[in-house]
Design goal:
The chain is mainly alpha-helical. It contains seven helices and five strands, in the order ββαβαββααααα.
């Protein structure tokens, strides 16, 4: 399985946050704005379903499957958090950060250095093979974003 940007509910004990760390940073208000980057959002529950389908479908033997969802810009993710979580997402920034400012800040912040190459890039990979061979469907990415945010809040991680 080659998943997209995996979000969704967290279950304790919580280890490294991976993709969910971006949602955590948005909710905590530590980001002054939103860089122009995006992700193919997929729910962890959909990825679990994809794994099960691949294990029981004989045609899946020896195959690789992309488990990607719709592409969303980070500003869209921020807007979903604000609309779905209300006051609990009041600190989520929605103001875009100019690419030039992100590049300049990346000179001293290694975390930003990893996103500079993706500024403004819209990467879309197809999960059509998983849909065709396994009957897999991907859910609404807004549900995964909301579930990540709710989990972070409930677990006291923001």
């Amino acid at each position: 399985m080659l998943p997209g940007w995996v979000l969704g509910p967290l279950r304790p004990p919580v280890g490294p946050l991976g993709s969910v760390q971006v949602v955590q940073r948005l909710l905590s208000g530590t980001m002054p704005g939103v860089p122009r980057v995006g992700f193919e959002v997929v729910d962890v529950r959909d990825i679990a379903d994809l794994h099960v389908r691949a294990m029981v479908e004989p045609a899946a033997a020896g195959e690789r499957f992309l488990g990607t969802g719709p592409f969303l810009w980070q500003v869209e993710i921020a807007e979903i958090l604000r609309s779905r979580l209300g006051e609990r997402a009041a600190r989520v920034p929605t103001q875009p950060i100019p690419d030039e400012l992100v590049r300049a800040a990346a000179a001293t912040d290694p975390d930003l250095g990893t996103i500079v190459v993706n500024l403004g890039r819209r990467r879309i990979r197809s999960s059509a093979k998983a849909q065709r061979l396994l009957g897999w469907t991907v859910g609404d990415p807004a549900d995964a974003i909301e579930a990540s945010g709710r989990s972070l809040i409930e677990l006291g991680l923001v």
